[in-house]
Design a protein that fits this description.
alpha/beta; 282 residues
């Protein structure tokens, strides 16, 4: 019976690419960095076997835990039945990329816009997509503490001028203050991954008026398309407002057309977008 249960558990882990945190010391350090408070409303993504959920459920006002594996979600509900029964903890068996995340965050925030805190151990194959979705919904979010593959973490926190700096760096850093909290070796997880992980914090920044997330994403996709080419070459085919095309756009923004995208700080792209006008995919 035990062997059968173990095989089922391993199969579900492979199916969804999950690596569960089993290092108790690391879990304690993540919770300490997250610093849950009695008034907090928390969205936990990927609770798995509850390494972090147990600490949250006894420390905050409310937790909604989204777990893709229905077997794990059911087991966690049984383990933390008292918290579920009192309404402190709700467990949603669902794919976070398929639910209406905006509605869920709004419901959890209630009468406190921007109050939701996010704690997540993200499967490596969906980490970037989940973080970007959360940033799109950031009006309801206060901060995020997420565990991701170290490579992804390095890209998110990277300053300009490094190989790790790219569109993801800009999208995150224009919307949040980012920092690395902790690095974790493969042995902190089961099954053991082939890569290192890192825990990062994203503290949401105030949204500028008239912000256009979709247009900025398209601008960055074009700007970083060929890293060895100049901005002038990469933006040549981008439909932008100035009649003179990319050259006129860069002139107005005060950017040398020979500059490469990795040399431009995040705010530089925001300023550049201001001269583009809305950008729509073709």
């Amino acid at each position: 019976m035990h062997d059968t249960a173990s095989r089922i558990r391993r199969a579900t882990q492979r199916r969804w690419g999950q690596n569960f945190l089993v290092n108790r010391g690391a879990a304690d350090r993540i919770l300490a960095a997250f610093a849950p408070g009695p008034d907090d409303r928390v969205l936990e993504i990927g609770p798995g076997s509850g390494a972090l959920t147990r600490g949250l459920a006894g420390s905050v006002q409310r937790v909604v835990a989204v777990e893709i594996d229905p077997t794990l979600a059911e087991a966690l509900g049984r383990q933390l039945a008292p918290q579920v029964e009192t309404g402190i903890l709700s467990i949603l068996a669902a794919d976070v990329l398929e639910i209406d995340l905006q509605a869920l965050l709004q419901q959890l925030a209630g009468e406190h816009p921007g109050a939701v805190r996010v704690l997540a151990n993200l499967p490596y194959n969906i980490a970037t997509a989940v973080i970007l979705r959360l940033l799109e919904c950031r009006l309801h979010v206060q901060d995020m503490v997420v565990t991701v593959q170290r490579e992804v973490a390095d890209r998110i926190v990277s300053p300009p001028g490094r190989k790790t700096y790219g569109a993801l760096s800009v999208l995150c850093q224009t919307r949040a203050r980012v920092e690395t909290i902790l690095r974790l070796g493969p042995g902190s997880f089961r099954p053991v991954p082939k890569v290192e992980s890192a825990v990062i914090r994203l503290t949401i920044l105030p949204s500028p008026p008239g912000e256009d997330f979709a247009s900025l994403s398209l601008l960055l996709r074009a700007a970083f398309r060929h890293r060895r080419k100049t901005l002038l070459n990469n933006l040549a085919d981008l439909p932008v407002a100035p009649s003179g095309g990319a050259a006129e756009l860069l002139r107005r923004a005060g950017i040398d057309p020979r500059t490469r995208a990795e040399e431009i700080p995040p705010q530089g792209f925001v300023d550049l977008l201001g001269f583009c006008g809305p950008i729509r995919s073709r």
